[in-house]
């Protein structure tokens, strides 16, 4: 059992001397006076739990700062683990998966393209065949194939907007998929 009398005789003046300094350290890290005060109390309890060795430490202030940093890390981990879900999301009915709906629309859209454009998109984008290999198969230069593929993708983008209710913006080929009719 720790000798609380000996601890109190060495800790009380030491704590009074450094309490404000430790509080300001914790306040700077938490930006919340209540949390800083709570952490300061926990820090004192941690020091008291180590009463047997605390008064004999060479650098008790360094130990307190290290313990304070560890408390901050622990609190941060605990705070991060729980995220409150807004009430509006809890009662929201499930929506149809837009990606699945778009995936159902894509084959139909590909069929509406000219056969050569649809074939290029299938080979290069869906089956992931190397463009050089496809160019060789068609007896085209790689540059010519890339130009045709660019035109085919542009046609596909336009058809997706028309047939699948997809929004396009200047930053990406497809921005949003609204819904499937």
Account of the 3D structure:
With 181 residues, the chain is an all-alpha fold. It folds into two domains: 4-79, Rna Polymerase Sigma Factor, Chain: A, CATH 1.10.1740; 98-177, Winged helix-like DNA-binding domain superfamily/Winged helix DNA-binding domain (Arc Repressor Mutant, subunit A, Orthogonal Bundle), CATH 1.10.10.10. Helix content is 72%, strand content 2%. The chain is built from nine helices and two strands, in the order H-H-H-H-H-H-H-H-H-E-E. A two-stranded antiparallel sheet has the order 1-2. Helix 1 runs antiparallel to helix 2 (33-49), helix 1 (4-30) crosses helix 4 and helix 7 (115-126) packs across helix 9. The radius of gyration is 33 Å and the shape is elongated. The model has no long low-confidence stretch (mean pLDDT 83).
